[in-house]
Every structure is written in structure tokens, then in C-alpha cells.
Amino acid sequence: MIRSIILGCGAYLPAQILTNDALIKMRGLDSSDEWIERRTGIKQRHIAAEGEKTSDMATKAASAALADAGIDSGSIDMIVLATTTPDNVFPACAVRVQANLGMERGFAFDIQAVCSGFVYALAMADNALRAGQARRALVIGADVLSRLIDWNDRGTSVLFGDGAGAVVLEAREGHGTVADQGILSAHLHADGRHYELLQTDANAFIRMNGQEVFRHAVANLSSVVDEALAATGLKPEEIDWLVPHQANKRIIDGTGKKLGLPPERIVTTIADHANTSAASIPLALATAAHDGRIKRGQIVLLDAMGGGFTWGAAVVRW
Ligand code: UT7
User: Fold this and answer.
1) What span, in angstroms and rounded, lies between the C-alpha atoms of 290 and 267?
2) In angstroms, rounded to a whole number, what is the distance separating the alpha carbons of residues 109 and 149?
3) Ligand 1 center to residue 93 CA distance, Å?
4) N or C: which end of the chain has fewer CB within 10 A?
């Protein structure tokens, strides 16, 4: 049985850091650092420079992932880029990244599943590798949500940041058991009946019913995590790391509590990165893999929920 192994990962964050206090002052928001941190866990976010595009950030994260994997872009067969903020309506951002990386072969496309985009992209790349359509894949999550923010809306403007993360996958023979290295299972869901609860308006600004999204996020993440554990037969105590989408620390804590995972086994980057949409999971993965927390052979559980609604989870043996 073919398994998709994560050979390496990489991240990119724009240079400009905007703290809660600086944001409040700059935009004259009726808010406070204390409120934002207590309700969300966010202390700061990175903001892309003027003219810095999703493809620029994605290229940097992808290059870092290739270097980490120790392979050349020429051996990549497939790029899947999860983004809600592509450079253009078309062509796909992924083909710009392909060219930026100096690639002259392979196939490349974008996936739009908002904050669940990386889990969706990982699952699609895993399917292609297991079907024999590609041997090596770059899976990227990159977003500049700062460009979709109505800075006067304190209910959303404090929540988001910009960034990119990427992983390199390689198809390898496994035994079909949970002892295998690589992606062990992936589970995707969508429920378009909730389209209006988190969407962009006619001006392309994010509009969200925060409380309702919060309520659905807690329920959907809990059920998809249960589904992933049931599919793999793993018990919560066998999960070494939960690497969740970083939307709200209270949602992350809720999932951790339900699994009985102590905070030391949950990778939380929201304080520094805020919600970077499709980039948040690969950014968190790269952070914890490079600082030595996530080690080869360990079990990593990813989960995400976003506009649509879309949600999903994946279990990976690192
Ligand atoms: O990544 C995709 C998935 N997204 C999510 O999962 C986000 C889910 N939702 C959330 O994280 C939370 O709902 C928020 C962080 C957005 C809001 O937190 P909340 O605890 O649900 O607050 P709330 O919406 O119930 O608002 C409570 C109060 C309101 O004031 P009143 O009506 O009680 O007077 C808001 O107007 O807090 C007010 N408020 C703020 N106050 C200070 C809302 N935003 C702010 C703010 N600063 N930035």
C-alpha cells in the first residue's frame, strides 16, 4: 500500500508585525489588547508588505520545504496550493509558484476551502500519490487575509494575519497499518447550508457571525477528530501532537480537552500568527518540526474548520 510521507516542511511570514495595541491605535478601534487576548489568544499578526502577493509567500514557504526535504523542485510532479486570496482570479496561484520554483514539468492547481484548505489540499495530494498519478507533491497553504479585512469591523479585523506554509510529500511503500510512516487517514466535510455565516460581502470584506461559527467549529472539529481516531483505531493517548487550525485559542483548548491532551501536546501559534487561514496548519507544523517538538515516528493529528462550512482532519505518522 502506498503512503504519502512528509519529507520536509517550510514556512514564511511577512516581516511586518502588527501587535494588538498597534492595530487598535492605527485603526482607532474600540477594543483592547486584553479583550483580544482573552477571547482569542491572539497577541500579534504578520502583515504582507504592499505588493507582496500570495504566490511570493507561497514560493518562499515551498522553497524552505524543498530545502528541508533536501530535494530539487525538478523532481516535484504536483503542486496543490490552498488559498482564498490568489494573486488573480486565474490562472491558479499554483502555476505562478511552479514557475517561480523553476519547474518546467508536473501539474499545479489551487484549492479553495478557506481555513480548511490545507487539510483539503493534503488529502487531495495524498489521493493522487496513492493512485500513482504523482510520486512527489508540494502541498502549500498561503493567504493574505489582511486584504479582505474591513479594518473598521472590530469583530473580524483583530482575528487575521498573513503567511504561508508548505510540506513535501513522497509516495513510499507501506504495510497498510498505523505503524506506517505518512498520512494514515484524512476526512473531509462540507455543509453549504451555513454559507452566510462566514463569507465575503459585495466589497470582498470578511463578514462573520462569530458566535455561530464558534459553536459549529467546536461541534464539527470534535466529530471529525472522533472520526479520524475511529478510522485509524488510535486512542487519544496515542496522539503525540494536535496541530489544529489556529482560529481561536478557546476552540483549540476545547478540542484538546475533549481528547484529554495536555496543552504541552498541542501546537499553538495563534498568539504570534493570528488566523492565517489555509497557512495556519503548515505554519504550525513547520514551527514545531523545526524547534524539535515533532519527531520522526510520532503521531500528529491535524484538524481545521472554515467558511462554507468546510472542515476536516488528518492523521499523520511523522
Ligand atoms: O477560521 C475560520 C473559523 N473562524 C472561527 O472559528 C472564529 C469563531 N469565532 C470566534 O472566534 C469568536 O466568536 C470571536 C473571537 C469572533 C468573538 O468572540 P465572542 O466571545 O464570540 O464574542 P461575541 O461575538 O459574543 O461578542 C461579545 C462582545 C460584543 O459586545 P456586546 O454586544 O456584548 O456589547 C461584541 O461587540 O464583544 C464585542 N466585541 C469586541 N470587543 C472588543 C467583538 N469584537 C470585539 C473586539 N474588541 N475586537
Assistant:
1) 12
2) 25
3) 32
4) N
The CATH number, out of the four listed (1.10.645.10, 3.10.20.600, 3.40.47.10, 3.30.70.940), of the domain defined by the range 182-317 = 3.40.47.10
Which of 211, 222, 250, 303 has the most ligand 1 atoms within 8 A of CB, as the residue to mutate?
Answer: 211
Q: Which amino acid residue places its CA nearest to atom 17 of ligand 1?
A: 210
Residue nearest to atom 43 of ligand 1 (CA): 155
Q: Is 209 a catalytic residue?
A: no
Residue 245 annotated as catalytic: yes
CA distance 17 to 203: 26
Which fold would CATH assign to domain 2-173?
Peroxisomal Thiolase; Chain A, domain 1 (3.40.47)
Give pLDDT tens digits for 59-92: 999 999 999 999 999 999 999 999 999 999 999 9
Average pLDDT over residues 46-57: 98
Q: Is 115 a known active-site residue?
A: yes
The model's pLDDT over 182-192, given as tens digits with 9 standing for 90+, comes to 999 999 999 99
152 lines ligand 1 (CB under 6 A): no
- If one residue of 39, 43, 115, 220 were mutated to test the ligand 1 pocket, choosing by the most ligand atoms within 8 A of its CB, it would be 39
Q: Count Cβ neighbours within 10 Å for each residue of 97-117 and write b for 16 or more, e otherwise.
A: bbebbebeebebbbbbbbbbb
- Integer Cα distance of 140 and 308 in angstroms: 20
Residue limits of CATH 3.40.47.10 in the chain:
2-173, 182-317
